[in-house]
Amino acid sequence: MAAMELDKTDRKILAILQADGRLSNQEVAERVSLSPSPCLRRIKRLEDAGIIRQYVALLEPAKIGLGLLAYVNVRLEKQRDAQASGSARSGSATPRTDFAASVENWPEVVACYAMTGEMDYLLRVHVEDMEHFSRFMMGTLLRHPAVLDVKSSFALQRIKDTTALPLL
Amino acid sequence: MAAMELDKTDRKILAILQADGRLSNQEVAERVSLSPSPCLRRIKRLEDAGIIRQYVALLEPAKIGLGLLAYVNVRLEKQRDAQASGSARSGSATPRTDFAASVENWPEVVACYAMTGEMDYLLRVHVEDMEHFSRFMMGTLLRHPAVLDVKSSFALQRIKDTTALPLL
DNA sequence: CGTGAAACATTAGCGGC
DNA sequence: GCCGCTAATGTTTCACG
């Protein structure tokens, strides 16, 4: 958890792997002018430090039938906590925690952040089309007891969307 | 560009590679109960069809000094097109196109979508802290001639954030 | 789709700066 | 501490059945 120092070579490695996560260690080593073993040691260090969190394949939504991307702002009801129900209360089922737990099980929701401002949460939702979106809203999101209201916007055009973070 | 049919095995491969993009072909083959060569042929097919767009390493923002995530809604000025300037007009420099071009050069902006609703664009912006954000706003975004106004919200808590799309 | 073989990549141990 | 060599092991990739 120490805030590990990154030198120029480490940053170069991160930039390379952010652009192509499947490059062989040899290829990376060559591009940073190192031999394979110290390069591999650095990559391992970055992985172990949690700086490299994961390697993934990115898919093209349109090509797997996900034609519609929505951002949904969600407002939750205020904490209505000390309301005893029939059985023993576990003590931690606030609207916020069980909304968060539900989000995990909704595969259409690929991202969810608690936000400042009027709305409590911002969700990124991938669906096939408006009908699928509608089904998700009526059948799932709006039915969740913690949800007070929502406001949706739809993506018209992707200008940029990268997983590559800026390296300071 | 044909809307390529995906069978159960293809979907399984996509699910596996969305979760770990560095698995060896052998490992993937084993998990889908195939031998390495047909498995590799399938993966190549998925790459060539553009269904697998890219392989990347995901970094942990907090561990590389990016402590603040903002979503910024941007409204552009209306097209003020037929305004001849001193020299010949190239014909395509609308506010929208040159805003889009600028976004490409701002590494803090990792995503930008044109959206329905009151605001024209939604930007996802990774910065170190409020001071960095403020510098980006005053020095870059608000200085762009096409930008009319902006509204920002900040992430308080990441509930979920995955690149893995739902497979229908 | 699977087999096999050549080319290539990974990774641990060790010596050197 | 960090680098680079070597050598054993494992993986990719393709022609062919």
TrEMBL record, chains A, B:
<dbReference type="InterPro" id="IPR019887">
    <property type="entry name" value="Tscrpt_reg_AsnC/Lrp_C"/>
</dbReference>
<dbReference type="InterPro" id="IPR019888">
    <property type="entry name" value="Tscrpt_reg_AsnC-like"/>
</dbReference>
<dbReference type="InterPro" id="IPR011991">
    <property type="entry name" value="ArsR-like_HTH"/>
</dbReference>
<protein>
    <submittedName>
        <fullName>Lrp/AsnC family transcriptional regulator</fullName>
    </submittedName>
</protein>
<dbReference type="InterPro" id="IPR036390">
    <property type="entry name" value="WH_DNA-bd_sf"/>
</dbReference>
<dbReference type="InterPro" id="IPR000485">
    <property type="entry name" value="AsnC-type_HTH_dom"/>
</dbReference>
<keyword id="KW-0805">Transcription regulation</keyword>
<dbReference type="InterPro" id="IPR036388">
    <property type="entry name" value="WH-like_DNA-bd_sf"/>
</dbReference>
<dbReference type="Pfam" id="PF01037">
    <property type="entry name" value="AsnC_trans_reg"/>
</dbReference>
<dbReference type="InterPro" id="IPR011008">
    <property type="entry name" value="Dimeric_a/b-barrel"/>
</dbReference>
<feature type="domain" description="HTH asnC-type">
    <location>
        <begin position="6"/>
        <end position="67"/>
    </location>
</feature>
<keyword id="KW-0238">DNA-binding</keyword>
<dbReference type="Pfam" id="PF13412">
    <property type="entry name" value="HTH_24"/>
</dbReference>
<keyword id="KW-0804">Transcription</keyword>
